[in-house]
Amino acid sequence: MVSTAFAMAANGGAAQSQQNPYSGIIMLVIMFAIFYFLLIRPQQKRAKKHRELVENLKVGDQVTTAGGIHGKISAVADDVITLEIAQGVKVKFNRSSIVGVAGQGND
Q1: Does this model's pTM top 0.70?
Q2: Does an H or E element contain 11, and which?
């Protein structure tokens, strides 16, 4: 009985080796395409949208930071934004920490 099972397994292995030799490569390409369209491409779009938002900041904009602080931009430097979060209270933030501008559709 053991020799019969071994013989059946050998035939199954022979049938499997007759498949397309490129099937592994094709599956790898398909998996990469799925990852690209479901993960990589949307993340690149989101990053581009955030980069444009940060580049277009100007004095007087009402913004929200990554930490959830809402304020009005009172000064803009190269990489630093000064927000007025209350009358006379000004705080400096990195430009990249700004996640939204009031009045724009933020996704």
Answers
A1: no
A2: helix 2-17
